[in-house]
């Protein structure tokens, strides 16, 4: 079979494997695809797939949101017993557009903040915060 130029789209490649091997496999596929005169569009939650001559895009997400203001908005809606749920308010504030970033751009780490907004038990949040502090080294997670 002869490989030809084309368009390749991969959505969450290797998502069902462990994060270490998944990241390695995805990086291997990206390196392999670079040798073809094709366009590849790959979505992933894996960070640090850092290759030269690759364009990177990232969902804006909650980057421009003040979490304290958002928490007050959610708490107010919850106290009014409206049908609007915390997740609806969160989705309304989520930026789903893509912005071009460079390979040095850090991946947002907002999962713990989102759990706080959604009312996850404080003890779980405290444990996650502590684990995060223990695993956080400079600008990278171990």
Automatic annotation (TrEMBL):
The keyword ATP-binding applies. Residues 5-112 form the DNA mismatch repair proteins mutS family domain. The keyword DNA-binding applies. SUPFAM superfamilies: P-loop containing nucleoside triphosphate hydrolases. Keywords: ATP-binding, DNA-binding, Nucleotide-binding. Pfam families: MutS_V. This is DNA mismatch repair proteins mutS family domain-containing protein.
């Amino acid at each position: 079979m002869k490989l030809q130029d084309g368009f390749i789209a991969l959505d969450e490649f290797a998502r069902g494997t462990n994060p270490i091997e998944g990241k390695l496999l995805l990086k291997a596929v990206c390196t392999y695809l670079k040798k073809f005169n094709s366009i590849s569009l790959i979505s992933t939650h894996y960070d640090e797939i850092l290759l030269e001559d690759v364009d990177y895009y990232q969902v804006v997400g909650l980057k421009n949101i003040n979490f304290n203001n958002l928490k007050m908005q959610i708490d107010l809606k919850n106290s009014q017993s409206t049908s609007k749920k915390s997740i609806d308010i969160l989705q309304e504030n989520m930026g789903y557009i893509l912005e071009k970033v460079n390979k040095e751009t850090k991946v947002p780490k907002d999962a713990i903040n989102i759990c706080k907004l959604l009312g996850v038990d404080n003890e779980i949040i405290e444990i996650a915060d502590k684990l995060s502090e223990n695993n956080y080294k400079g600008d990278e997670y171990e």
